[in-house]
Sequence to fold (194 residues):
Amino acid sequence: METPIKGKDQILMFRLLQDKDKTNATRLALQTSHTVKKSRKNDTTATKDGTIVANGTQETTIDIEAIASDDLTNDILAYAQNRGLELEVWVVDFSKKLPSGKYMSQYGVGYLSDWEVPAEVDDNTTIKTTLTVSGELVKGEATVSELDQITVKNFFRDTVKGAQNVAPLDETPKYDDKTSSDGGTSNDSKTSTK
Fold:
C-alpha cells in the first residue's frame, strides 16, 4: 500500500542568500500551511484559421502561512520582504530521512512579493506571504540540525527574557534493568513499613 504524504511533515526552512556563507538555514516556527504552486501563462493569438497558442514560461510560487511569533526566521522573512532581498528556501520532508542522515527536500531561491499580518479578534495573529521562485524548485538532500529535528513539533523556552527555543526534556520512562518474573520492576517488591 502506498504511503500518503502528510502536510505536517513538510517543513519550510529559509536563509538570506547573502548569508549563505555565514549562517545555517532556520525553520519557520508555528507554520500552519504552505502551498507550492506551478503555473504557466500561455499566450494566444487569434488568426483567421483559428487560435495559435504559444507556450509561456512556468512560474513557481510558495504561499506561506504561519502564526506570528518572535521567531528569528519570522523576522528574517519580514526583513527580506521589506528590503527586497533574495531568500533561499527548502521544503524539507521530515518523513523521508535518508541513510546519509539528511532529509529529502526541494530547494529554490526567490523573493517575497507581499507581507500580510491579519490580526483578528478571536484568533492568533498570523503572517501570510508569497515567495516567487527564480526558476524551479530542485530536489536534493538537506542537512537539518539535531535541534530542528527534535523541535519540529515541540520546543521549550525558559521564562527569562531573550531565552532561546530548546529541545524538550526526554520524558521516556526509565526502568530498572532487573525485572521480576511477572514483568514488574524489582522496585515492585519493596514496600514501606511504619
Observations:
- Residues 184-194 have pLDDT under 50 and may be disordered.
